[in-house]
């Protein structure tokens, strides 16, 4: 393999969590008396993927003239009751194991809290990861490279053979800001790859596997 260290985003990269996140967001909107006929599941998904949950909270609270803080509180209460059902993308476990068996090092870098570690453990793949950064640690959010630099320095990573794998522009930008390559995993092709110029740009696990194991 050309790459030896793999930094992984969690939501939308390792695990297919966005369908659950979107459903939780829609339930939170319904609690605010937004009509289900006004909800656009695809639009919510695209805003979350192209931007962030924070952007979705701001945009849809303004659109429906509801309190952003209450919408967020409702979402934060609903999503944890649903997230345990999340699963890795089909083929992801096989890819992680293949990289590990070939001598690759896996590190997790996510804005999600420690529920991400629980999900990794439930899927039987937590042991494949050498180290983790989750929401609980006091780093600025990606694309700030602080959390990446922390993991790089702590684990004596060679930046020349490292890559950040994620599903959003901010993941690729974080990698570049830390002096490492970026791989964009973009199911449904909703991200403008030209904005971040990833070294790898794929839409499915088969193509991602071929690129990372090369």
From TrEMBL:
An annotated Gene Ontology molecular function: phosphoglycolate phosphatase activity
GO process terms (BP): DNA repair
InterPro entries: HAD-like_hydrolase_sf, HAD-like_sf, HAD-SF_hydro_IA, HAD_2, HAD_sf, PGP-like_dom2
A single cellular component GO annotation: cytosol
Protein known as: Phosphoglycolate phosphatase
Lineage start: Bacteria, Bacillati, Bacillota, Bacilli, Lactobacillales
């Amino acid at each position: 393999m050309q790459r030896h260290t793999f930094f992984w985003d969690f939501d939308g990269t390792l695990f297919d969590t966005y369908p659950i996140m979107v459903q939780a967001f829609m339930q939170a909107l319904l609690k605010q008396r937004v009509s289900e006929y006004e909800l656009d599941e695809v639009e919510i998904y695209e805003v979350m993927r192209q931007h962030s949950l924070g952007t979705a909270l701001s945009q849809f609270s303004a659109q429906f003239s509801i309190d952003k803080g209450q919408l967020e509180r409702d979402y934060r209460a609903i999503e944890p009751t649903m997230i345990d059902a999340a699963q890795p993308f089909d083929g992801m476990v096989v890819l992680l194991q293949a990289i590990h068996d070939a001598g690759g090092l896996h590190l997790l870098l996510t804005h999600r809290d420690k529920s991400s570690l629980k999900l990794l453990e439930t899927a039987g793949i937590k042991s494949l990861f050498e180290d983790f950064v989750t929401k609980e640690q006091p780093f600025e959010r990606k694309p700030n490279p602080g959390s990446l630099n922390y993991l790089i320095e702590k684990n004596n990573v060679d930046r020349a053979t490292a890559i950040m794998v994620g599903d959003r522009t901010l993941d690729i930008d974080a990698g570049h800001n830390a002096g490492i390559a970026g791989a964009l995993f973009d199911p449904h092709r909703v991200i403008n790859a030209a904005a971040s110029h990833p070294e790898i740009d794929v839409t499915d696990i088969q193509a991602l596997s071929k690129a990372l194991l090369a």
